[in-house]
Predict the structure.
Amino acid sequence: MDNARKTPRRVGILGGMGPAAAIDLQAKILAATPARGDADHLPVVVWNVPQVPDRVAAVRGEGPSPLPAMQEGARGLEAAGCEAFAIACNTAYHWADALATSVRIPLLHIADAAMDALARLPAPPVRVGLLATRGTLAAAFYGERLAQRGFRWLVPTGDEQARFVDEAIARVKAGDVAGARAPFEAAARALAGRGAEVILLACTELPLAAEGVDCPVPVLDASRALAEAIVEFAMRRDGAQPAP
């Protein structure tokens, strides 16, 4: 096999939403890559530009669309030679279809990666607790996929979302990861108390809030599942494309 065939495919990360989430995804890609030296790691290009309109507000019809800024980033990644790209923001996948049609390279979808990861668990759960932004919950792409795969899913009450989930996300975005742990734990325990067998973290800030927290049920990080899907794509050398 020649050197060109041995080189992993170049993958782009559309980040900035928020900036820490893009860095976290890069770290997870690094950890998931079976490398013995520098040259074995993936060629990754990151567009980490945070001046993107608020995604949650846009989904709720309360602010401008982030799509033009996201399209600019996706085209930049394509121009940099990426053969696929992923978004380091769950809520931004609300615009996945429109974003994917603006470039010629495939978009690796975080919710598809999470569903595959749930199905691979040693004992796949029946009831999944979903923690996400209000925008991601309203966009419904996780709920649709969970239902299609035969999972039952639970979400926080309105009060729990406001007091615990929104608070944990806001603290991470403000750089206060330690302060995010208590509200995250409260949200996870509330879902576990209502029967969730696993907690799916469908927000790229929440894995940072979950670090060091004693959760009563297993936690599945969608961004880690995405990192593993990115590595799988990049290391695949048969030219196959990800499923739409």
